[in-house]
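Table 4 source record.
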Amino acid sequence: MRAIVTGGAGFIGSHLAEALVAEGADVHIVDNLRTGFTEHVPPGATLHQLDIRSAEAVQLFRSVKPDVVFHQAAQVDVQRSVADPGYDASVNIAGTANILQACLQASVKKLIYASSCAVYGELETGLIKEGDPTEPISFYGISKLTPEAYLRVFGLLYGLDYTVLRYANVYGPRQTPKGEGGVVAIFIDRLKQGLPLVVYGDGEQTRDFVYVEDVVRANLAAASRGSGRTVQVATASATTVNELVQWLANIHGAPIQPEYRPERPGDIRHSCLDNRLAKEILGWTPRYDVYRGLKETYDFAMK
């Protein structure tokens, strides 16, 4: 299999590229290195330092002619999307449209799109299902949802096969505490520096934390399953930020007194995703519980 991984020098993309290389795939990475790192590119993969919005990226697709494209590249910082919605839309919407055009020109068999739980916004439901209303409360959520509609129409008009994977809150080794950084990466980085952990709000907000290796497995499964479907990649288990702090204190071996600050605009209060469709369609189930994933992430960061 010949594959292109956009954002393959970043957090999730580099783990995915590594797994594809291990399976014997011919892997090409498209990354502008704005938030990615050359040292994250696995041996055996070819890095092309290109922006997904560029004409050069389209030309690369025509040259490589991949069988499958894993579209991971994105602007993923919610607060940056609030501060600069134009840039956010340029990367996530226009960039994805450019990649879809490239897929048509290269006769790509399938594209797997990395979407987000941010598309739902603040739903008053305990366990979110794929068919629930999508009402984003951040520009990031809007810019991740809009390409899903582009994919549907590209499929209708041109027959492009695809699977949308809506990720819960992904965490794990190589996640940066800046830019794309989720709360786990930020907390562990602050522990490493001996700084207090900052909690926005009362800490009782919940998240569905899914480990990066489980996300990689879902992507690999989607390469041959889930045609035309939207599937959530999640643990279906809610964790409060306060619980996260307690578990990290246990792993760190010392008590932690977090510093509480006001809530930030665009942040979702509660988010937990149903994963039954992933089990049914992709044959996928998460292997990592949050504590095990936290321990591996902590150990990696503290090396």
